[in-house]
Amino acid sequence: MSPLLQIKPEDLFVDYSLDSAALGARPMVKRHLADLRGSFSDGSAYEAALAQGNPLIYEVTAVEPANGDGQLHYGLGIIQPGRIGDEYHLTKGHYHSHRAAAEIYIGLRGEGAMVLEDETTGETRLVPLVANSVVYVPGHTAHRTVNTGAEPLVYLGVYPSNAGHDYGAIAEKNFRNVVIATASGPALVERSAHLAGRPTR
Ligand code: PA5
Ligand code: MN
To answer: Is the pTM of this model over 0.90?
Structure first.
Protein backbone atom coordinates (compact mmCIF):
# COMPACT_ATOMS: atom_id res chain seq x y z
CA MET A 1 0.00 0.00 0.00
CA SER A 2 1.27 3.51 -0.72
CA PRO A 3 2.50 5.52 2.29
CA LEU A 4 -0.36 7.96 1.74
CA LEU A 5 -3.04 5.30 1.85
CA GLN A 6 -1.55 3.86 5.03
CA ILE A 7 -2.55 6.99 6.95
CA LYS A 8 -6.06 6.96 8.37
CA PRO A 9 -8.14 9.86 7.02
CA GLU A 10 -8.64 11.15 10.57
CA ASP A 11 -4.83 11.44 10.91
CA LEU A 12 -4.40 13.40 7.66
CA PHE A 13 -6.35 16.36 8.99
CA VAL A 14 -6.83 17.18 12.66
CA ASP A 15 -8.31 20.36 14.03
CA TYR A 16 -7.44 21.78 17.43
CA SER A 17 -8.87 24.19 19.93
CA LEU A 18 -6.91 26.99 21.56
CA ASP A 19 -9.40 26.95 24.43
CA SER A 20 -9.40 23.28 25.39
CA ALA A 21 -6.29 22.20 23.42
CA ALA A 22 -8.34 19.21 22.20
CA LEU A 23 -6.93 17.58 19.07
CA GLY A 24 -9.94 16.29 17.18
CA ALA A 25 -11.76 13.93 19.53
CA ARG A 26 -8.64 12.21 20.83
CA PRO A 27 -8.29 11.45 24.53
CA MET A 28 -6.26 13.97 26.52
CA VAL A 29 -3.81 12.63 29.10
CA LYS A 30 -4.43 14.61 32.27
CA ARG A 31 -1.74 15.39 34.84
CA HIS A 32 -3.00 16.59 38.19
CA LEU A 33 -0.91 17.98 41.01
CA ALA A 34 -0.78 14.55 42.70
CA ASP A 35 0.83 13.13 39.52
CA LEU A 36 3.72 15.59 39.87
CA ARG A 37 5.13 14.48 43.20
CA GLY A 38 8.88 15.09 43.14
CA SER A 39 8.75 17.49 40.18
CA PHE A 40 8.69 20.73 42.19
CA SER A 41 11.69 21.79 44.23
CA ASP A 42 9.72 23.14 47.20
CA GLY A 43 8.31 20.01 48.87
CA SER A 44 6.57 21.96 51.64
CA ALA A 45 4.76 24.21 49.17
CA TYR A 46 3.81 21.11 47.17
CA GLU A 47 2.29 19.31 50.17
CA ALA A 48 0.49 22.49 51.28
CA ALA A 49 -1.04 22.93 47.81
CA LEU A 50 -2.05 19.26 47.64
CA ALA A 51 -3.76 19.54 51.02
CA GLN A 52 -6.00 22.21 49.44
CA GLY A 53 -7.00 20.02 46.47
CA ASN A 54 -5.67 18.23 43.41
CA PRO A 55 -5.99 20.66 40.51
CA LEU A 56 -5.44 19.80 36.88
CA ILE A 57 -1.98 21.12 35.91
CA TYR A 58 -1.61 20.06 32.28
CA GLU A 59 -3.01 17.89 29.52
CA VAL A 60 -1.42 16.46 26.40
CA THR A 61 -2.83 14.71 23.36
CA ALA A 62 -0.69 12.83 20.85
CA VAL A 63 -1.30 12.09 17.20
CA GLU A 64 0.69 9.17 15.81
CA PRO A 65 -0.22 8.76 12.15
CA ALA A 66 2.52 6.23 11.29
CA ASN A 67 5.69 4.66 12.62
CA GLY A 68 8.96 4.03 10.85
CA ASP A 69 11.89 5.82 9.29
CA GLY A 70 11.08 9.47 8.51
CA GLN A 71 7.62 9.50 10.08
CA LEU A 72 6.51 12.19 12.54
CA HIS A 73 4.32 12.25 15.64
CA TYR A 74 3.02 15.34 17.38
CA GLY A 75 1.35 16.36 20.60
CA LEU A 76 -0.67 19.34 21.74
CA GLY A 77 -0.11 20.47 25.30
CA ILE A 78 -2.01 22.85 27.56
CA ILE A 79 -0.61 23.96 30.92
CA GLN A 80 -2.89 25.83 33.30
CA PRO A 81 -1.50 29.00 34.86
CA GLY A 82 -0.41 28.96 38.48
CA ARG A 83 2.45 28.39 40.88
CA ILE A 84 3.50 26.05 43.65
CA GLY A 85 5.38 28.33 46.01
CA ASP A 86 7.42 30.44 43.62
CA GLU A 87 7.71 27.70 40.94
CA TYR A 88 5.53 27.93 37.87
CA HIS A 89 3.24 25.09 36.84
CA LEU A 90 5.38 22.65 34.87
CA THR A 91 5.41 19.41 32.92
CA LYS A 92 7.20 16.31 34.20
CA GLY A 93 9.85 16.71 31.53
CA HIS A 94 11.72 13.97 29.75
CA TYR A 95 14.50 12.84 27.46
CA HIS A 96 13.65 11.03 24.29
CA SER A 97 14.19 7.27 24.60
CA HIS A 98 15.98 7.56 21.27
CA ARG A 99 18.37 10.19 22.58
CA ALA A 100 19.36 11.60 19.19
CA ALA A 101 15.76 12.59 18.39
CA ALA A 102 15.19 16.35 18.27
CA GLU A 103 11.82 18.11 18.53
CA ILE A 104 10.27 21.44 17.65
CA TYR A 105 7.79 23.21 19.90
CA ILE A 106 5.43 25.77 18.40
CA GLY A 107 3.88 28.28 20.78
CA LEU A 108 0.16 28.76 20.07
CA ARG A 109 -1.26 30.64 23.02
CA GLY A 110 -0.09 32.16 26.29
CA GLU A 111 3.32 32.80 27.76
CA GLY A 112 5.77 30.20 28.94
CA ALA A 113 9.27 28.88 28.67
CA MET A 114 11.20 25.68 28.14
CA VAL A 115 14.04 24.40 30.28
CA LEU A 116 16.57 22.62 28.08
CA GLU A 117 19.31 20.62 29.81
CA ASP A 118 22.16 18.88 28.05
CA GLU A 119 22.42 15.26 29.17
CA THR A 120 26.21 15.14 29.33
CA THR A 121 27.21 18.55 30.70
CA GLY A 122 24.03 19.70 32.50
CA GLU A 123 24.36 22.97 30.56
CA THR A 124 20.92 24.63 30.73
CA ARG A 125 18.99 27.19 28.71
CA LEU A 126 15.70 28.88 29.57
CA VAL A 127 14.00 29.62 26.24
CA PRO A 128 10.73 31.56 25.89
CA LEU A 129 7.77 29.63 24.48
CA VAL A 130 5.09 32.06 23.35
CA ALA A 131 2.53 32.37 20.57
CA ASN A 132 4.06 32.92 17.12
CA SER A 133 7.38 31.35 18.03
CA VAL A 134 9.25 28.08 17.59
CA VAL A 135 11.69 26.44 20.00
CA TYR A 136 14.20 23.87 18.78
CA VAL A 137 14.96 21.07 21.22
CA PRO A 138 18.15 19.26 20.16
CA GLY A 139 18.67 15.56 20.73
CA HIS A 140 20.21 14.40 24.02
CA THR A 141 18.43 17.29 25.78
CA ALA A 142 15.98 16.99 28.67
CA HIS A 143 13.04 19.34 28.19
CA ARG A 144 10.37 20.69 30.50
CA THR A 145 7.74 23.34 29.79
CA VAL A 146 6.47 25.91 32.28
CA ASN A 147 3.56 28.34 32.13
CA THR A 148 4.84 31.74 33.26
CA GLY A 149 1.72 33.67 32.27
CA ALA A 150 -1.78 34.31 33.52
CA GLU A 151 -3.67 32.27 30.91
CA PRO A 152 -3.34 28.68 29.66
CA LEU A 153 -0.17 27.96 27.70
CA VAL A 154 -0.92 25.99 24.53
CA TYR A 155 1.78 24.52 22.29
CA LEU A 156 2.44 21.84 19.72
CA GLY A 157 5.45 19.51 19.86
CA VAL A 158 6.55 17.67 16.70
CA TYR A 159 9.04 14.82 16.94
CA PRO A 160 10.30 11.75 15.05
CA SER A 161 8.01 8.75 15.43
CA ASN A 162 10.79 6.74 17.06
CA ALA A 163 11.61 9.41 19.70
CA GLY A 164 9.79 7.83 22.65
CA HIS A 165 9.43 9.49 26.07
CA ASP A 166 11.92 8.58 28.82
CA TYR A 167 10.79 9.91 32.20
CA GLY A 168 13.06 7.71 34.30
CA ALA A 169 16.18 9.88 34.43
CA ILE A 170 14.16 12.97 35.35
CA ALA A 171 12.19 11.09 38.02
CA GLU A 172 15.52 10.02 39.51
CA LYS A 173 17.45 13.28 39.65
CA ASN A 174 15.15 15.98 38.25
CA PHE A 175 16.41 19.03 36.34
CA ARG A 176 19.42 20.85 37.68
CA ASN A 177 17.58 24.19 37.59
CA VAL A 178 14.20 25.51 38.68
CA VAL A 179 12.11 28.27 37.06
CA ILE A 180 10.77 30.69 39.66
CA ALA A 181 8.80 33.92 39.72
CA THR A 182 10.81 36.95 40.84
CA ALA A 183 10.04 40.66 41.01
CA SER A 184 11.75 41.05 37.65
CA GLY A 185 9.99 38.08 36.01
CA PRO A 186 10.74 34.38 35.48
CA ALA A 187 14.26 33.34 36.49
CA LEU A 188 16.32 30.18 36.36
CA VAL A 189 17.99 29.22 39.63
CA GLU A 190 20.07 26.19 40.60
CA ARG A 191 17.89 23.62 42.38
CA SER A 192 20.53 23.32 45.10
CA ALA A 193 20.37 27.09 45.73
CA HIS A 194 16.60 27.51 45.42
CA LEU A 195 15.63 26.90 49.04
CA ALA A 196 19.04 27.42 50.59
CA GLY A 197 18.89 29.71 53.61
CA ARG A 198 15.12 29.42 53.93
CA PRO A 199 14.00 28.41 57.42
CA THR A 200 12.63 24.86 57.52
CA ARG A 201 9.06 24.60 58.72
O1 PA5 B 1 6.54 15.23 23.28
C2 PA5 B 1 6.71 16.26 23.95
O3 PA5 B 1 7.84 16.70 24.25
C4 PA5 B 1 5.48 16.99 24.48
O5 PA5 B 1 4.34 16.69 23.74
C6 PA5 B 1 5.29 16.59 25.95
O7 PA5 B 1 4.95 15.22 26.02
C8 PA5 B 1 4.30 17.44 26.69
O9 PA5 B 1 4.81 18.74 26.79
C10 PA5 B 1 4.06 16.94 28.11
O11 PA5 B 1 5.26 16.88 28.81
P12 PA5 B 1 5.75 15.51 29.49
O13 PA5 B 1 5.73 14.46 28.41
O14 PA5 B 1 7.14 15.79 29.97
O15 PA5 B 1 4.79 15.17 30.59
MN1 MN C 1 9.74 15.57 23.81
So the answer is: yes
